[in-house]
């Protein structure tokens, strides 16, 4: 048995680097650990623990190997469980999932290679590292063929263990990014456009991207469809967490119990239908970004748990008392007035202030006239190409109707309207008749073709029509304002729906 010196009040961990520097090449790790001089300790703050904490199953019939390997892994911030044979290993897997297993090929009379398929069948997401003191090319090839993630010859050093786990982490991150990219491509959506000609949006983007490089919590406000999720993802991709997962949780989509399980995970039997242990979205986002969409709908009972995650980086799975840690960056979004919800007692005041460190307010599409024109053109190019049609422009009447419409559904509605119009269009431009009825009814009482200088129409209507025609013929609002001889802000006021 390894006797450790008394642990002082500060938290201490074994420092594997010291072991590595003091262990002669080829000397077994358990022999190095047996020498008291090699037991080196380092005071640390809890935040220095590995960003991605793993649950590791050590399957070996040698007690000393289990103990020494466990010491090194726990020193790296991971959780370990020991199993001396195949039966006990499968029993531990029935209790809950593991991220990694270190499997010895010689478990007494058992053959580790024969156990490998059973382990992967019980826990398909687990990476198995095969270990043996009798390494051969044949056994390594066979282990990899059966699904092993890596092969580690005995004796190993702490650095070799660290490198194996780093390789597994990198592989998982790459797989997550590929899955994320495939998911985004499969949505058949136009390319995200984060450019703008609107001063209000420029201010939002500037603040968002300055905050992105810090770990600060961000709240995004805006009507439904204004692009809150797109902005949250853009912040993640400009942050230090960009190589890790971006995980979205839609707060209104589930009941309270299911939402708690979706967020924090649950253990088997936690509620009716919980037939297996699961890790929630918080664990999936560890080291990355957790995006909570429509945070205003988060049940009051779950709000203290979210507050604890934000303040202490700790949480428990549903039905479990064991504390887990997760280093996640939280971004929230809502279309509700949270200050009013706080006053009404529907949202915790302390959670509101913890979330509301940096606030970004996205203006509705009806206040982004210049962006509206560019977005519509981008959607037109995308859907025309998708439908195999040679449509390049909107008619003047269609442009006018789109500028006058209020767009309550914002960018999401604009996307659907343009797709609808492209499908119905029979020519090389989008006509007013191709737009949904709710837009085609926005045309002025006197048609554009009827209004001429000198007609008996109010001066205001003549001015409105002249401005409309100039705006339709120019590519930007700045250009239109210059031609009309008025300021840009004045032009916005004159084109704003009444």
The count of β-strands is 18
What percent of residues are in strands?
Answer: 5-15%
SS element count, helices: 21
CATH homologous superfamily classification of the largest domain: P-loop containing nucleotide triphosphate hydrolases
In angstroms, what is the radius of gyration?
30 Å
CATH architecture of the largest domain: 3-Layer(aba) Sandwich
Sheet with the most strands, sense and barrel status? 5 strands, parallel
Please state the average pLDDT score: 81
- Anisotropy-based shape: elongated
Broad structural category: alpha/beta
Helix content: 40-55%
Q: Tell me the quaternary state.
A: single chain
Low-confidence stretches: 1-51
Spatial order of the strands forming the largest sheet: 4-3-5-8-9
- Separation of the first and last Cα atoms: 83 Å
CATH topology tier name of the largest domain: Rossmann fold
3D architecture notes:
There is one protein chain. With 498 residues, the protein is an alpha/beta fold. The protein has 3 domains: 52-168, 3-Layer(aba) Sandwich (Rossmann fold); 199-363, P-loop containing nucleotide triphosphate hydrolases (Rossmann fold, 3-Layer(aba) Sandwich), CATH 3.40.50; 366-495, Helicase, Ruva Protein, domain 3, CATH 1.10.8.60. It is built from 21 helices and 18 strands. It has helices at residues 16-22, 29-34, 63-75, 86-95, 112-122, 137-145, 158-186, 199-212, 228-237, 256-264, 281-284, 303-312, 338-343, 349-355, 369-387, 396-404, 410-424, 437-440, 459-473, 477-484, 488-495; strands at residues 12-14, 41-43, 55-59, 79-83, 100-104, 106-107, 110-111, 127-132, 150-153, 218-221, 246-250, 289-293, 314-316, 323-325, 329-334, 358-361, 393-394, 429-430. The strands form 6 sheets. A 5-stranded parallel sheet has the order 4-3-5-8-9, sandwiched between helices. Strand 3, helix 3 (63-75) and strand 4 (79-83) form a beta-alpha-beta unit. Helix 8 (199-212) packs across helix 9, helix 12 (303-312) packs across helix 14 and helix 19 packs across helix 20 (477-484). The longest helix has 29 residues, at 158-186. Residues 1-51 have low confidence and may be disordered.
